Here is the input.
Amino acid sequence: MPSIASADNSVSPPPRKRLRQEESTTSRKPSKEPRLFVPFRALGLITNHIPFVLQTRSHKGATEGPRVHLLTCLGRSWALWEGGKMTLLFVGPDAPDYISSMAMDGDAVWVASASFVIKYLRGKEVSRVANPLETNLSFITIFGSHLLALAENGDRMLVWNTSNGVPTSDFQTELESTISFGPNFSATSILHPATYLNKVVVASSQGDMQLWNIQTQFASIQCFGYFRTNACLRTLIHNFPASRLLTSPETLASGSSERGRAITSVVQSPAIDVVGIGFTSGEISVYDIRADERLMRMFMEGGGIRALGFRSDGHPILASASSAGHIALWDLNEGGRLLHMIRGAHDAAITAVEWVPGQPVLITSSEDNSVKQWLFESPTAPPRLLKFRSGHQTPPHLIRYYGDDGKQLLTASRDRSLRCTSVVRDSRSFELSQGSLLKKATSLSIPLASLKFPPITSISYSTTRSKDWDDILTTHTDETFVRTWTMLGKRLGKYSFGFADDPKAKGKERGVIGTAKTVCVTACGNFGLAGSSTGQIQMWNMQSGIKRKSYTLGPCPPEVAARFYSGTAKRSERSISGIATDSLNRVVIASTLDGTINTTKLEHTLVLPSTAVSILLQRDSGLLAVICDDMTVRIIDIETRRIVRELSGFHGRILDITFSPDSRWLVASSLDSVIRTFDVPTGRLIDAFRTSSIATSVSFSPTNDFLATAHVDSVGVFLWANRAQYADVSFKSVSDEEIFDVSLPSVQGVAEDEALEALTALEVSDAPVDVFSTPPQLEGDLITLTLLPRSRWQTLLNLEVIQQRNKPKEPPKAPEKAPFFLPTLPGVETRFAPQVKESAKETKKDTRRLQKAVIGTESVFQQKLTSEARDGECESSGDASVVQTLIEAFTDENFFNYMKMLSPAALDLELRSLVTLDSLSLFVNALTQRLHSHRDFEAVQAIQNVFLRMHGDVLIANQGMQSELEKLSQAQQKESQRILELIASSLGTLGFVKDTL
Here is the structure.
């Protein structure tokens, strides 16, 4: 017997927003920060099997009609689209688990995830309610001020009251009641019939429907006189048995051995009391729930009903969608006569069908990752496709960056499509056309996917002549020819290059034509090469499609034949696994499955220890990476034709590799679900992280900013930001114990919120390392030299000679002055004087002309010198304690770091600008303190040499400078003697080691 239970008062309220965000962030944050690659965002995700939600809004004074918004599910997150141009508005954050149902209420978005129902406003989570039974929720709907949800097993309906809250951090939702259904009733969906106060219709997988009053314990007798006896004392108003809804409840579901009585869709019609009901058997019932009478019945062939939709612009038409991807249109004025059948409207089961209110536009979504809009130009004419957004139906297995700007990706999938995915904007993504397949599929009454080309196994391109002719070559599964494509035309190219019989072959070998295995387009874009499974390598002209040349592998090396073949290997038994050409078209490199690397005219044959699965050539550096079957990547220098590196450490078969643009890194993915990055010059593993699913293909951006990956369980392409582009990353060897799990990038990315997890990984916490800064002292008795190049000091010492030699023929032009209203400060670098707001009293004091002239005359060099000397002021009597006090007082190195960053000419000018005795005294004191600190010895020597040559006569003529000069002389002699002793000791040690060895 159905019953109703009140909310349990002992159930703790949901956590507040701040606490919840901290908990969810902590649970999702990886245990360690990524070293090199940080999750950025996911591309190519449009929708999944969860039905979308349509919302229309009419604005006062609008002339373009109501605005249409679409809410689609992306797994754990959701996306909101603008229906006019199908542009992406924003994406929500990740939920705790995969989303099972969605609903919209004004500006709010509600989603069901696991046992939670989460509310979002403008993409930000504002509240969350939990199922007190801690079971997953399968369906939610907003009914006035109530939130209704169904348990996953369909035995209960939960009712929350949302009327006593506002969308703030203090928002709380009360659980009003829990309605339990009978043992033979598993609820699947909820519908609120129009004008029915506080009443909902609940559909079940057994084919029954029930009408419930969720607000009170008794039904309204005046509105439902027909159900008077059933509705007086119970919340259950009426039960609609499957025998009245279906013609034959025992009919089997389409493509299944189970009975097709389960209700898959219940929708409201424009007529009050009338609803449309769809079943898994393909039957459709138009039912009057007030009179408990079926008005008409239709049956759709080709799969069970997945969605229904009534047209609302005055034409009585019902649209139904099947699990096979077909759309049927029914004329309700003619008793449900079939108007049109759109076969293959989608490549997979259609999940939702919605009519735009008041418009002849039908919107559909499907499990093939697409949303389409269909326009009906007349009531009886078939619809035409108006606009759509789509992605890959199945996970892509081959991705490659296209071009040199890093804005486009070529992606191939098992859904037999080749797509261009835009990294910059989702609306720029498209599928390369394979011809007018839709018209052919409609005329033949076969699925559209059956007419597409087989899945792509290899792809190559060259953008050099992309504006002139076809620029992409592909091979397909079990095909004996390769196809050309044009990216500019977004379609299939003109030619198909097929392999012909080998004219040199004899007997049975003459008719052997193998399947195309690999392709390569030359760097110039004029020629395309392909290798077959029978060892044939041929070259065609990309412009004319004429065959230009054939290459012969030649005899198999004896050691290879003994290892892979019994006796002598035939030429037709040697399959080509990879082919490449260098940047100057001098060498064609081919790899075979028996582990050999061959070049043009068999100039050289390199035998590898294992089978060569595939190859990748970095044309700029001449490095050839070979994936071998022994889980090792071998790098070959094509100039010396030797193996220069062997990269190992994989615990599964290597799937794909990619070079960084500068050829310094090699990124590889393998079956152990780990993406590894190797440093090619050292051969070390510098980065490795484990993903939740295996990465089948990887591609490095030509601009060195992103790494793109494709995975086995997702139809999207994932981008990882290169941290080396934003911060200084220290590289060290990584062991297997240091490999940790990293979650895949979300669709939202890092552009929406400063608090996102991915953005914190990109923040540079430490200041950039100054290459000219002196490292700290290793020991007090040692002297540390500066890191500046030797030429810097030699230029400073001989600056006058260099200036005289490089004297310009014409006088240099004065730099353009800034406008009069932009005052500048004196110095080597052009700096604008900031406007300092002073108080009225200070302004009145600084009215004298002399003080106005003095303000702002000091350069940055002089300002840093003054502040530095004040920090290091100390009376020195020559003993060790005072010297130590001097060194400790002189802790700020801003002055010397700034001085070392200046160019020789700028430093010479600043030294000449020291014209007062106070500035000369300060500079001498700074040199003395730097010598006492045992830092920058050779820098101080060079600066001291130039300084004394410039101002020596002034220093000698002034008696007040004698004490400072004596201190500088003593420090100079002491440090010179110390460094001579250290050099002598080092030379003696080196001589002893040399004589001993």
Summary: Residues 461 and 472 are 4 Å apart (CA to CA). The longest strand covers residues 491-498. The first helix runs from residue 17 to 28.
